[in-house]
Design a protein that fits this description.
The protein is of the alpha/beta class. It has ten helices and four strands; from the N terminus they run E-E-E-H-H-H-H-H-H-H-H-E-H-H.
Length: about 220
Protein backbone atom coordinates (compact mmCIF):
# COMPACT_ATOMS: atom_id res chain seq x y z
CA UNK A 1 0.00 0.00 0.00
CA UNK A 2 1.37 3.38 -0.91
CA UNK A 3 0.04 5.96 1.50
CA UNK A 4 0.43 9.57 0.48
CA UNK A 5 -0.63 12.43 2.70
CA UNK A 6 -3.87 14.05 1.60
CA UNK A 7 -3.80 17.81 1.61
CA UNK A 8 -0.07 17.71 0.97
CA UNK A 9 1.74 21.04 0.63
CA UNK A 10 2.51 19.87 -2.91
CA UNK A 11 -1.18 20.01 -3.81
CA UNK A 12 -0.91 23.49 -5.31
CA UNK A 13 1.53 22.00 -7.84
CA UNK A 14 0.52 18.36 -8.17
CA UNK A 15 -1.05 15.35 -6.47
CA UNK A 16 1.24 12.81 -4.72
CA UNK A 17 3.03 10.61 -7.26
CA UNK A 18 1.45 7.28 -8.24
CA UNK A 19 3.31 4.90 -10.56
CA UNK A 20 1.30 3.47 -13.41
CA UNK A 21 2.61 0.50 -15.39
CA UNK A 22 3.44 -1.74 -12.43
CA UNK A 23 0.67 -0.61 -10.09
CA UNK A 24 -1.03 -4.00 -10.20
CA UNK A 25 1.42 -5.13 -7.52
CA UNK A 26 0.55 -2.25 -5.24
CA UNK A 27 -2.52 -1.02 -3.43
CA UNK A 28 -2.95 2.71 -3.10
CA UNK A 29 -4.65 4.48 -0.22
CA UNK A 30 -4.52 7.98 1.17
CA UNK A 31 -4.18 9.09 4.75
CA UNK A 32 -2.77 11.89 6.86
CA UNK A 33 -0.09 10.08 8.84
CA UNK A 34 3.58 10.30 7.93
CA UNK A 35 5.42 6.98 7.80
CA UNK A 36 8.86 6.37 6.37
CA UNK A 37 9.49 2.76 5.44
CA UNK A 38 8.26 -0.12 3.31
CA UNK A 39 7.70 -3.54 4.82
CA UNK A 40 7.97 -6.56 2.57
CA UNK A 41 5.22 -9.06 3.35
CA UNK A 42 6.28 -12.05 1.31
CA UNK A 43 7.10 -15.08 3.42
CA UNK A 44 10.54 -16.48 2.75
CA UNK A 45 11.60 -13.50 0.68
CA UNK A 46 15.29 -13.22 -0.14
CA UNK A 47 17.74 -10.60 0.97
CA UNK A 48 18.05 -7.55 -1.27
CA UNK A 49 18.94 -4.70 1.04
CA UNK A 50 20.14 -1.32 -0.13
CA UNK A 51 23.77 -2.37 -0.28
CA UNK A 52 23.02 -5.24 -2.64
CA UNK A 53 20.55 -3.23 -4.67
CA UNK A 54 23.12 -0.50 -5.25
CA UNK A 55 25.66 -3.15 -6.24
CA UNK A 56 23.27 -4.33 -8.97
CA UNK A 57 22.87 -0.75 -10.16
CA UNK A 58 26.63 -0.16 -10.24
CA UNK A 59 27.24 -3.35 -12.24
CA UNK A 60 24.56 -2.24 -14.71
CA UNK A 61 26.12 1.21 -15.00
CA UNK A 62 29.51 -0.34 -15.70
CA UNK A 63 28.02 -2.48 -18.47
CA UNK A 64 25.83 0.21 -20.04
CA UNK A 65 27.10 1.88 -23.24
CA UNK A 66 26.43 5.20 -21.55
CA UNK A 67 26.04 5.44 -17.75
CA UNK A 68 23.86 8.53 -18.18
CA UNK A 69 21.38 6.45 -20.22
CA UNK A 70 18.77 5.61 -17.59
CA UNK A 71 16.81 3.39 -19.95
CA UNK A 72 19.88 1.32 -20.79
CA UNK A 73 20.85 1.05 -17.13
CA UNK A 74 17.29 -0.01 -16.27
CA UNK A 75 17.37 -2.86 -18.77
CA UNK A 76 20.62 -4.16 -17.33
CA UNK A 77 19.37 -3.82 -13.75
CA UNK A 78 16.29 -5.86 -14.68
CA UNK A 79 18.48 -8.50 -16.32
CA UNK A 80 20.71 -8.65 -13.25
CA UNK A 81 17.75 -9.03 -10.92
CA UNK A 82 16.09 -11.64 -13.14
CA UNK A 83 19.08 -13.93 -12.57
CA UNK A 84 18.41 -13.92 -8.83
CA UNK A 85 15.88 -15.90 -6.77
CA UNK A 86 12.30 -14.64 -6.90
CA UNK A 87 12.39 -13.67 -3.24
CA UNK A 88 15.30 -11.36 -3.84
CA UNK A 89 13.49 -9.74 -6.75
CA UNK A 90 10.47 -9.05 -4.55
CA UNK A 91 12.76 -7.63 -1.87
CA UNK A 92 14.35 -5.41 -4.55
CA UNK A 93 10.91 -3.94 -5.23
CA UNK A 94 10.71 -2.92 -1.60
CA UNK A 95 14.20 -1.44 -1.64
CA UNK A 96 13.44 0.53 -4.81
CA UNK A 97 10.37 2.11 -3.28
CA UNK A 98 12.22 2.82 -0.03
CA UNK A 99 14.57 4.92 -2.14
CA UNK A 100 11.64 6.59 -3.86
CA UNK A 101 10.17 7.45 -0.46
CA UNK A 102 13.49 8.80 0.82
CA UNK A 103 13.79 11.08 -2.20
CA UNK A 104 10.22 12.42 -1.98
CA UNK A 105 11.26 15.86 -0.74
CA UNK A 106 10.29 19.40 -1.58
CA UNK A 107 13.84 20.64 -2.33
CA UNK A 108 14.51 17.77 -4.72
CA UNK A 109 11.19 18.37 -6.47
CA UNK A 110 12.18 22.01 -6.86
CA UNK A 111 15.51 20.95 -8.36
CA UNK A 112 13.71 18.69 -10.83
CA UNK A 113 11.39 21.58 -11.67
CA UNK A 114 14.37 23.77 -12.58
CA UNK A 115 16.29 21.11 -14.49
CA UNK A 116 13.35 19.84 -16.54
CA UNK A 117 11.61 23.16 -17.06
CA UNK A 118 8.65 22.07 -14.93
CA UNK A 119 7.87 18.86 -13.08
CA UNK A 120 4.51 17.15 -12.69
CA UNK A 121 3.82 14.39 -10.17
CA UNK A 122 4.65 11.67 -12.71
CA UNK A 123 7.61 13.73 -13.86
CA UNK A 124 8.98 13.78 -10.33
CA UNK A 125 8.67 9.98 -10.16
CA UNK A 126 10.57 9.68 -13.43
CA UNK A 127 13.20 12.20 -12.33
CA UNK A 128 13.86 10.18 -9.18
CA UNK A 129 14.06 7.07 -11.33
CA UNK A 130 16.75 8.81 -13.37
CA UNK A 131 18.50 9.76 -10.12
CA UNK A 132 18.56 6.13 -8.93
CA UNK A 133 20.10 5.16 -12.28
CA UNK A 134 23.01 7.52 -11.53
CA UNK A 135 24.15 5.28 -8.68
CA UNK A 136 24.36 5.50 -4.93
CA UNK A 137 26.86 8.34 -4.56
CA UNK A 138 24.97 10.73 -6.83
CA UNK A 139 21.59 9.71 -5.39
CA UNK A 140 22.53 10.17 -1.75
CA UNK A 141 24.30 13.44 -2.37
CA UNK A 142 21.36 14.83 -4.33
CA UNK A 143 18.84 13.82 -1.65
CA UNK A 144 20.98 15.50 1.01
CA UNK A 145 21.72 18.59 -1.12
CA UNK A 146 19.70 18.89 -4.34
CA UNK A 147 21.67 21.96 -5.39
CA UNK A 148 24.73 19.70 -5.72
CA UNK A 149 23.16 18.35 -8.93
CA UNK A 150 24.68 21.43 -10.54
CA UNK A 151 28.04 19.61 -10.43
CA UNK A 152 26.92 16.86 -12.81
CA UNK A 153 28.02 17.25 -16.44
CA UNK A 154 24.70 15.84 -17.65
CA UNK A 155 22.82 18.51 -15.70
CA UNK A 156 25.05 21.23 -17.10
CA UNK A 157 24.44 19.85 -20.57
CA UNK A 158 20.69 20.12 -19.98
CA UNK A 159 21.12 23.75 -19.03
CA UNK A 160 23.08 24.41 -22.22
CA UNK A 161 21.06 22.30 -24.65
CA UNK A 162 17.55 22.27 -23.18
CA UNK A 163 17.36 18.54 -22.48
CA UNK A 164 15.53 16.92 -19.61
CA UNK A 165 16.23 14.03 -17.24
CA UNK A 166 13.80 11.14 -16.76
CA UNK A 167 14.14 7.46 -15.96
CA UNK A 168 10.65 5.97 -15.90
CA UNK A 169 12.05 2.53 -16.79
CA UNK A 170 13.94 2.31 -13.49
CA UNK A 171 10.66 2.21 -11.59
CA UNK A 172 9.76 -1.10 -13.22
CA UNK A 173 13.07 -2.96 -12.88
CA UNK A 174 11.94 -5.40 -10.19
CA UNK A 175 8.50 -5.81 -11.77
CA UNK A 176 10.01 -6.67 -15.14
CA UNK A 177 12.67 -8.91 -13.60
CA UNK A 178 10.08 -10.93 -11.69
CA UNK A 179 7.97 -11.34 -14.82
CA UNK A 180 11.00 -12.47 -16.82
CA UNK A 181 12.22 -14.86 -14.13
CA UNK A 182 8.91 -16.44 -13.11
CA UNK A 183 6.39 -15.57 -15.80
CA UNK A 184 4.30 -13.97 -13.06
CA UNK A 185 3.77 -10.53 -11.66
CA UNK A 186 5.08 -9.57 -8.24
CA UNK A 187 2.43 -10.83 -5.77
CA UNK A 188 -0.34 -8.45 -4.82
CA UNK A 189 0.41 -6.77 -1.49
CA UNK A 190 4.07 -7.77 -1.60
CA UNK A 191 5.25 -4.41 -0.31
CA UNK A 192 3.80 -1.59 1.74
CA UNK A 193 5.05 1.86 0.81
CA UNK A 194 4.32 5.03 2.71
CA UNK A 195 5.72 8.38 1.77
CA UNK A 196 6.84 10.72 4.54
CA UNK A 197 5.01 14.02 4.85
CA UNK A 198 7.02 16.53 2.78
CA UNK A 199 8.19 19.89 4.02
CA UNK A 200 6.01 22.85 3.05
CA UNK A 201 6.35 23.77 -0.60
CA UNK A 202 7.08 27.16 -2.04
CA UNK A 203 6.21 28.68 -5.40
CA UNK A 204 8.50 26.96 -7.86
CA UNK A 205 7.80 29.72 -10.39
CA UNK A 206 9.18 32.37 -8.03
CA UNK A 207 12.64 32.92 -9.51
CA UNK A 208 13.88 34.82 -6.48
CA UNK A 209 12.87 32.09 -4.07
CA UNK A 210 14.35 29.38 -6.26
CA UNK A 211 17.61 31.34 -6.47
CA UNK A 212 17.68 31.70 -2.69
CA UNK A 213 17.07 28.00 -2.03
CA UNK A 214 18.92 26.45 -5.00
CA UNK A 215 21.45 29.11 -6.03
CA UNK A 216 23.71 26.96 -8.18
CA UNK A 217 20.93 25.30 -10.15
CA UNK A 218 19.14 28.62 -10.49
CA UNK A 219 22.34 30.11 -11.87
CA UNK A 220 22.36 27.44 -14.58
CA UNK A 221 18.68 27.38 -15.48
CA UNK A 222 17.28 30.83 -14.68
CA UNK A 223 19.93 33.03 -16.27
Amino acid sequence: MIVATSGSPFSEHTRPPVPAGWAGALVFAYGTDAVTRCQCRVAGSGVMDRERFWQVVEVARAQAPGPDDAEGVAGLVSAGLAARPAGEIVAAEQTLWDLMADSYTTPLWAAAYLINGGCSDDGFDYFRGWLIAQGREVFERAVADPDALADLPVVRACAADGGFLEGEEILGVAWNAHLAATGERIPQGACTIRYPAPAPAWDFDDAGEMARRLPRLAGLFLE
